[in-house]
Design a protein that fits this description.
The protein is of the alpha/beta class. Helix content is 45%, strand content 18%. The strands form 3 sheets. A 4-stranded mixed sheet has the order 4-3-6-5. Strands 1-8-9 form a 3-stranded parallel sheet, sandwiched between helices.
Length: 179
């Protein structure tokens, strides 16, 4: 599982690393609206609130959380299907979700992607222009807790200061060269 605060660069690092390491990337479900350029089934499975609630009630999620006013979750079918095919599975997940999965799957490996500084995180969130000022403040408010938990409770920490280095470190982890 790869987690980190919003704006740390998780998606970019993961996508580049997966170009070198064959692995199934589980696509999370969310109730939020797609951002410009996002594709349903590729970036997320965008589903309505009522459908998400139905899936929660039917125990279809390995984990789910409400984050920044939207629901996000990992569908069991995404993970179990890939494992049944003999594929290794990578979850791109928020910190709370990673901890929830770790409770259910104790041998899961947690990788934390962190920004080089709080200022860099703020700059990245503002620079991606996907959230308004209120959303950015919410994300920055929870970031200190995420950073504390990531450094304390995760198996690996990768500082995403230099993208190529961060990708190289994640590739090493995914290949089992770094444990």
């Amino acid at each position: 599982m790869v987690a980190g605060p919003s704006g740390a660069g998780k998606t970019t690092v993961i996508r580049r690393a997966l170009a070198s390491v064959p692995m199934h990337l589980s696509v999370s479900a969310t109730t939020r609206k797609p951002r410009p350029g996002e594709t349903d089934g590729v970036d997320y499975r965008f589903i309505p609130q009522d459908e998400f609630k139905r899936l929660v009630a039917s125990d279809a999620f390995l984990e789910w959380e409400e984050v920044y006013g939207n629901r996000y979750g990992t569908l069991k079918s995404q993970v179990e299907g890939a494992l049944a095919r003999g594929e290794n599975v990578l979850l791109e997940i928020d910190v709370k979700g990673a901890l929830a999965v770790k409770c259910k799957v104790p041998d899961a490996h947690l990788v934390f992607i962190m920004p080089p500084s709080p200022e860099a995180l703020k700059g990245r969130l503002e620079g991606r222009e996907t959230d308004d000022a209120t959303e950015i403040i919410k994300r920055l408010d929870v970031a200190p807790w995420e950073l504390e938990v990531g450094e304390r409770d995760f198996d690996e920490t990768i500082v995403n200061d230099d993208l190529d280095e961060a990708v190289g470190e994640l590739v090493s982890v995914l290949r089992g060269e770094k444990a």
